[in-house]
Amino acid sequence: MTRTLVDYEAVVGADAISQLRQAARDLKGATVVHVNSTREGGGVAEILSWLVPLMNDLGLETRWEVIEGHGEFFNVTKMFHNGLQGNQVVLTSRHTDVYEKTVSDNYERLRPLLESADFVFIHDPQPAHLLALCPNRKGKWIWRCHIDASHPNRKVWNYIRSQVRGYDASIFSMPQFAQRLEHPQFIIAPSIDPLSDKNVDLPDEEISKALDTHNIDPERPILTQISRFDRFKDPVGVIRAFQLLNGTVDAQLVLAGGGATDDPEGAVVLEEVREAANGNKLVHILELPPDAHRTINALQRASAIILQKSLQEGFGLTVTEAMWKGKPVIGGNVGGIRLQVHNHHTGFLVDTPEGAALRLRELMSRPEKMHTIGRTARKFVLDNFLLNRHLREYLTLMLGLRRGLANHLMTD
Ligand code: UDP
Questions:
Q1: Is the pLDDT of residue 408 over 60?
Q2: Which of 36, 197, 268, 387 is paired with 247 by a 20 to 30 Å CA distance?
Q3: Matching CATH topology for 5-191+387-411 and 204-384?
């Protein structure tokens, strides 16, 4: 169902929506293209699925295009992803050839759009090479990096840097991720759509039905991590934390996730997770289809505590989603999770499975604290991480680039 800005007034207030309309006034009719590498699965697709219709609703002619590629291309781009998040990877000229060839093939299809667009947002490294192929561009090009690139593998970063240095601007989710680049860098945190299937209020019956479908006991408290099966999300660490509780807490663990079409490593990691669970009946490992938004919503709502024990995290929309549902979050002490989880206020940051087990035990023994933290968490999302703030910052950035303010600021 397509929602329009008016629908959001009830959540964020009429003033917030009116600010967006004002900011968009001078951008009416501008053509905008977003390019990423998957239409479903993962946070970027989640964001584009509301951002693109709402930009259109504001009068900007906005399109969402997806880079297409084969297995080898996505192996290379996943290697870029892993390298940017600090893993040791070996980058060869064969890798960069595969990458550049696939992006060039896509360029042929996208060329008329990209050459004429007033603004092009390129999300993450996968489509970054497009700029080098488009010498006759008319508009401003922005590289939007969603990854925790604070300590990248040098060789990978040097290559990606060679691809993105010619952009007019880049956007990172937090200051710690910014890099040495010649163009202006902006810090814009992601956000969630409170009215999407992922986040909208659900009737109790729908929540019960979701638990029933997945054989989850509605009477036993539920601890949940929702994530793609990716080692950076540390699903095995979550199982370890649960095992450390050693039956001292009456609870069951749900690890739910699916794949993204641009993530080739999911099946291997899922196998590692199954092995770690070792047949424990209190550990539910759910493989969900990419459109299981209402199921994820129901699982988050049915949970007592949400975990997101990532080892690296660009932002962690799953954290925002949980907090919006009034849940305390136990999150890895990394990246964008640190923007959202503040110890004792909106949840707890942990560095190890032992730390996670300690906080799980503490929270489970203090229901009133869980409740207070959940309330604070929801308010924190309302104030900081809903789509109106995110959209406003994008519009401001576009206005700035169009008027050359960004360059002006840089030379001041
Ligand atoms: N998600 C989903 N299905 C899954 C796993 C995750 O729809 O099986 C969603 C999740 O609810 C969130 C997004 O994908 O909206 C993941 O974003 P996040 O920033 O947490 O991590 P990313 O996958 O982008 O690294």
A1: no
A2: 268
A3: yes
